[in-house]
């Protein structure tokens, strides 16, 4: 392709930024902020928002654009009926007036030079379509950035799309598409595309209100050393994202369900900090026990806890490893409390709040919970019912269990799916976050997801 020189201000094309949205009122102020802080001239760009939420957000947009230098270039449209994402993207493209059209999602982060970088690259390379085939994703529940997997140079992602108006003559979204709308627009990923630098194009934000659950993408991603502070230089936006990670909870776990909570660890600072977090979350001091590991062996430690629980006839116990991180999201708390309520009415032997599940199946009647049949050891966050003490002790004493797996196929054993707790690194220093957030049947190579 022939090369063009970077644009001068006098020849800058007019750009339409297009954003379909639904039920994201709390994110819209930050979308407008990122549009307005772009270094591309304000009179050479417009923002077109197409919203099919039950309630209009026109009042919010009006208040946010009241003092904008060009309020007429921020156009908001509310639809009274819900549309598919494919149909909505086609409609917003029809509303766009620009020579170039750039997609910006309502809940992701974009740098201040996104528009100027994108248009300069497209013009310089004479490209009618540009996008990224991998993107950095910040998972708010684990406060870590992962790079999505590379599925091919033309398998590009819609949140990074930019195209010349002429590209729309032969490319249109499938009106029936409700997810993965890229497939139809790119003619099954056959359209030639200029690949952009993903870090300069987007930071995808995974949060509890996503239209699809990104928790299970982790297993196919590579963890990055880049932190949120480094990726988001703007302090206003960074504080907003930090609130997503540390969102206030409307409910706490039903700690009364647990007879004892046994916190295991040999680091006094970790034990103290974790204990305080539990107490702050509503656990009573009378329920909490602290215990040092037995011979630095997690299997022997769990065995000792179970034997003590059997001797003292505890109705149940929750074992927690003090090295765990806690997913502070309301949906995790809600899933746990649903499970605890259900266990009042069914027979059960145990359940995990953090585990590497090797085999199991989904429960159609209990959202966010699976039946776990094979788990990797060690058990990091595990609740055991009194009736299961004897069979669990027998298995923990068995030499086969020493190989690192526990089979509970004959027991009534459950697990939160995905986990409520996780570890960033295993005992060998290998990255292991992804192993707590993978789909059943997907087993990542140990350490393979870590990227320096």
List the helices and strands and how they pair.
Elements: E1 15-21, H1 28-36, E2 45-51, H2 58-65, E3 74-78, H3 85-95, E4 100-103, H4 114-124, E5 129-131, E6 136-139, E7 144-147, E8 162-164, H5 182-185, E9 194-195, H6 198-201, E10 204-206, E11 222-223, H7 228-231, H8 235-245, E12 260-264, H9 268-280, E13 288-291, H10 298-311, E14 316-321, E15 325-326, H11 330-343, E16 350-354, E17 357-362, E18 369-376, E19 381-385, H12 389-397, E20 405-407, E21 413-416, E22 421-422
Parallel strand pairs: 1-2, 1-4, 2-3, 5-9, 6-10, 12-13, 12-14, 16-21
Antiparallel strand pairs: 4-8, 5-8, 6-7, 7-11, 14-19, 15-22, 16-19, 17-18, 18-20, 18-21
Helix pairs in contact: 10-12
List keywords for this structure.
alpha/beta; Spore Coat Polysaccharide Biosynthesis Protein SpsA, Chain A; 2 domains; elongated; 12 helices; 25% helix; 452 residues; 9-stranded mixed beta sheet
Can you put this structure into words, describing what you see?
With 452 residues, this protein is an alpha/beta fold. It has two domains: 9-242, Spore Coat Polysaccharide Biosynthesis Protein SpsA, Chain A (Alpha-Beta Complex); 255-436, Spore Coat Polysaccharide Biosynthesis Protein SpsA, Chain A (Alpha-Beta Complex), CATH 3.90.550. The protein contains twelve helices and 22 strands. The chain has helices spanning 28-36, 58-65, 85-95, 114-124, 182-185, 198-201, 228-231, 235-245, 268-280, 298-311, 330-343, 389-397, and strands at 15-21, 45-51, 74-78, 100-103, 129-131, 136-139, 144-147, 162-164, 194-195, 204-206, 222-223, 260-264, 288-291, 316-321, 325-326, 350-354, 357-362, 369-376, 381-385, 405-407, 413-416, 421-422. The strands form four sheets. Strands 12, 13, 14, 16, 17, 18, 19, 20 and 21 form a nine-stranded mixed sheet that branches. Strand 17 and strand 18 form a beta hairpin. The longest helix is centred in the C-terminal third of the chain and has 14 residues, at 298-311. The two termini are 34 Å apart. The relative contact order is 0.10.
């Amino acid at each position: 392709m022939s090369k063009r020189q970077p644009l001068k201000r006098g020849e800058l094309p007019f750009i339409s930024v297009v954003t379909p949205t639904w039920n994201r009122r709390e994110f819209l102020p930050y979308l407008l902020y990122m549009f307005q802080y772009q270094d591309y001239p304000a009179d050479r760009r417009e923002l077109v928002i197409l919203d099919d939420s039950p309630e209009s957000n026109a009042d919010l947009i009006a208040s946010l654009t009241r003092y904008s230098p060009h309020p007429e270039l921020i156009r908001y449209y509310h639809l009274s009926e819900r549309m598919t994402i494919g149909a909505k993207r086609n409609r917003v493209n029809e509303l766009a007036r620009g020579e170039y059209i750039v997609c910006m999602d309502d809940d992701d982060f974009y740098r201040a030079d996104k528009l100027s970088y994108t248009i300069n690259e497209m013009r310089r390379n004479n490209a009618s379509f540009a996008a990224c085939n991998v993107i950095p994703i910040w998972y708010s529940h684990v406060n870590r950035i992962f790079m999505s997997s590379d599925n091919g140079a033309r398998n590009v992602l819609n949140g990074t799309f930019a195209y010349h108006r002429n590209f729309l003559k032969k490319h249109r979204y499938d009106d029936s598409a409700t997810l993965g709308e890229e497939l139809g627009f790119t003619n099954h990923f056959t359209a030639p595309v200029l690949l952009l630098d993903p870090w300069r194009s987007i930071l995808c934000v995974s949060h509890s209100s996503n239209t699809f659950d990104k928790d299970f993408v982790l297993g196919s991603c590579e963890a990055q050393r880049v932190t949120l502070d480094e990726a988001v230089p703007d302090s206003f936006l960074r504080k907003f994202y930090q609130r997503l990670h540390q969102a206030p909870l409307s409910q706490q776990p039903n700690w009364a369900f647990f007879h004892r909570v046994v916190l295991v660890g040999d680091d006094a600072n970790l034990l103290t900090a974790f204990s305080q977090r539990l107490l702050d979350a509503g656990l009573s001091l009378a329920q909490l026990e602290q215990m040092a590991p037995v011979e630095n062996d997690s299997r022997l430690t769990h065995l000792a806890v179970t034997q003590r629980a059997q001797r003292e006839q505890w109705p149940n116990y929750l074992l927690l490893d003090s090295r765990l991180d806690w997913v502070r999201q309301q949906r995790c708390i809600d899933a746990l409390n649903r499970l605890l309520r259900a266990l009042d009415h069914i027979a059960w032997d145990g359940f995990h709040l953090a585990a590497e599940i090797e085999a199991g199946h989904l429960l159609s009647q209990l959202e966010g919970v699976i039946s776990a049949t094979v788990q990797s050891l060690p058990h990091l966050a595990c609740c055991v019912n009194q009736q299961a003490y004897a069979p669990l002790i027998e298995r923990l004493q068995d030499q086969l269990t020493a190989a690192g797996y526990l089979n509970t196929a004959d027991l009534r054993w459950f697990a939160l799916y995905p986990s409520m707790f996780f570890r960033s690194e295993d005992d060998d220093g290998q990255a292991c976050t992804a192993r707590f957030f993978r789909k059943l049947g997907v087993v990542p190579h140990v350490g393979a997801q870590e990227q320096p």
